[in-house]
Amino acid sequence: MKSLGRIILFAAIGAFVLVPLAQTIMTSFVSTLPRSGIVEGHFSLINYQNISHSAVLKQAILNSIIYVVLNVVLCLGVGLPAAYAFARYSFVGDRQLFFLLLVFRITPTVVLSLPIFVLFAQIGLENTPVGIALVHCVFNIPIAIWILEGFIASVPREFDETAFLDGHSLPSFFFRHLVPAIAPGIGVTAFFCFIFSWVEVVLARILTTTGGKPITMAINALFGFRTDFGLVTAMTVLALVPGVAMIYFVRNHLAKGFVIRT
User: Fold this and answer.
1) Number of independent structural domains in the chain
2) What is the CATH number of the domain that holds 82?
3) Is the pTM of this model over 0.85?
4) DSSP state of 38
5) Could you give the residue ranges of the DSSP H alpha helices within 154-250?
């Protein structure tokens, strides 16, 4: 009886998650507005064709890819050495500084939206993918340092000392030995930075008022008096593809990383 109850529970959860997703995918292949030569409500690739012919929508997809990739690279580039310093060295206020980083991470994005907009407007970074990437780094770097510090701390200090005795410099040891050893942690970090940056809406809305809009804002702009829900769902499906691809490519590191971190 308990097994049957669990099966029913998991089936209900699966249906709750998968049915809307399946509906979205099916709707993306349906013409939801009257068009010449296309029967409304029947299978069609018109929504994806409209996306491929729309310079605005294609630019929004490209903008999202640019700022997400840039954000992940910057977070790993800053987070790795900072995490190594927290894990391997002791200095006055190190734990307090580490705690402050985490406190800053849980600060609501809307609290900093106005000063960030004013600053970026003064230096010309508003309405650009680079500006969004940089402001996302402000929130992603603390979580990157927190995750990576745990993985580096789990590596014995003898690992470092042996490499230094073999004649490796710190950069050589870092890239040739430490980075491969904590690859699962890097995968977990990249995953979380990617997810936050890809789905974040508040800062993207504020910083891209006239240009540089990401895919989330492009989807939002499609809603109007006569919304083409087929086009909306097609863009939604395309927005899911990079996330699914990210999970696929880091799936092994992601699974190992969660096991090691816990």
Assistant:
1) 1
2) 1.10.3720.10
3) no
4) B
5) 157-165, 170-173, 179-181, 183-199, 202-207, 215-221, 229-249
